[in-house]
Amino acid sequence: MAKIDNGTWVLVADGEKALILENTTDAQHPNLRVVRKEEQENPPDREQATDKAGRLADGGPNQVSGLAETDFHQLAKDRFAGDLADFLYRNVHKGRFEKLVIVASPHVLGVLRPELHKEVTDTVVAEIAKTLTNHPVAEIEKAIATEIAG
Q: What total number of domains does the chain contain?
């Protein structure tokens, strides 16, 4: 069972929004205070791409292969995970937190994990695979208390 003490940070993230919260009480009755909100403007890929997929000559007569289009929307989400990892790294070095709980969808967790520096990874006391970015703080507190106790 993870222990989230007073001062534990909670990162609630999806690919476009993140909420950094700090626990001001204990694990049984978390009381989370907003430290920082991050939001990335990331329009759908169809609004970011400008051309059709490229073509590549295969070397044979009249042979061409289609190239996959770049998914700019997904690239922006992945870049956002890197930005979050850097933010956490800077703050762990400043001594702003010693324990971290990460609440994110399984996909975002998968993208975020390799981006985290070892110093940040060492502070992670729990990972909760849920998307809670659009929930009120009271619901996030309840979900964390349930997951940590459960």
A: 1
- The CATH number linked to 30 is 3.30.420.60
- Letter for the amino acid at 6? N
CB atoms within 10 A of CB 72: 17
User: Of 4, 19, 141, whose CA–CA distance to 87 is shortest?
Assistant: 19
Residue 48's identity, in one-letter code, is: Q
What CA dihedral angle connects 100, 103, 106 and 107, to 10 degrees? Answer: -90
pTM over 0.85: no
- pLDDT tens digits, 72-116: 656 666 678 888 899 999 999 999 999 999 999 898 899 899 999
Amino acid at 34: V
